[in-house]
Amino acid sequence: MKLKHSVQTALTGLTTHKSRSALTILGVVIGITSIILVMSLGQGAQNLILSQVNGLGATTIAVIPGKISGGPSSAAQTLSDSLKDSDLTALETKANVPYAKEVMPMVLSGGNAVYGNQVYQVSLYGGGTLMTSIMNITVGEGNFFSDDDVLSKSQVVVIGYKVKDHLFDGDEAIGQKIRIGNNTFKVIGVLPQKGQSGLVNFDDAVIMPYTTAQTYVLGINYFNRIIVEADTQDHINATAADITNTLRSDHNITDPSQDDFSVETSADIASTLDTVTSALTAFLAAVAAISLVVGGIGIMNIMLVSVTERTREIGLRKALGACDHDILTQFLLEAVMLTATGGLIGILLGGFLSYVISIILTSALSLSWTFIFPWNAAALGLVVASLVGLVFGIYPARQASRKSPMEALRYE
Fold this sequence. Notes:
The chain is 56% helix and 17% strand. With 412 residues, the chain is an alpha+beta fold. The longest helix has 44 residues. The chain is elongated.
């Protein structure tokens, strides 16, 4: 029998039992839809994260306390007090780090901002005046704090748009005082809506001089970060090496494995995040692919039932001259057609749902989310779906082809 006739016969067999065929491909549809969703959203998240990292600036270098690679114990060191005033002074010395354009310490924390009866949970950032340039911050209302405010530990703050909206409910915020912990701070500036820079969303932020945060909020004499901006992108690696050598000298470290700090460029952070997000996306896709195996088993079971129900049909076809190969081809084609159809529906459904979710994320969460259709995953999913139909259809097809025409015709 020609392949064309086998295809027509397979199509007739599938369309005769539409409900059963639809239920059979449901597992494949769910599996392919899940894979497309995971891959599309994973790539969208990856692009968003990397764009945010690039927003830190190509010449930005972060010095972090503790050695961030090496397991849970070393991860805990990132909360250590290894970055002190002496380190800041050493990095600000031009002879030590000649390509450093700007150096700024930072302290980080969280807490509640209180105004009257209103309470709002905020992210607290203590920094210097260089935050406006290094972290691309603009002030919508009022002013940013000055170098004099940093030196005098002035109790002044700049608040994010959401902080103002929640605490002051549309009223004027400039000049008002909010409470953080046991101290009050005067609001001198408000950031515009979507005040985001790098990986930080400043809409929920309270920014103050780092000296103020150290003294009145945290009670510490060390830094959580030191941000260094190189003069050009070409000098990034040289600047990172100078920072490392300077801090090792300042900390009396001769063995690099004993470093109590980490130096990371934007490229390092982007590479790490790219690896993490890619691995996570691949893992989730693999989990979603399990449903394809479940769908394949379902197809095999349904095909075995179909073989039993169509025993007389098989016997009649063999009596009219169909050979074992013809019967085998017909049932294999039916299985492959089911899974391929499920794959196509899953690809379209997954793409549509991914597009809808990207619109929701963009509008509801104000994220710069880009819809990405994973063409590679779609092509691979379609091929895998067809292979699933082929693999799990072989056994039912062989069972059908081995039936004796005489016994099949007598079957009731």
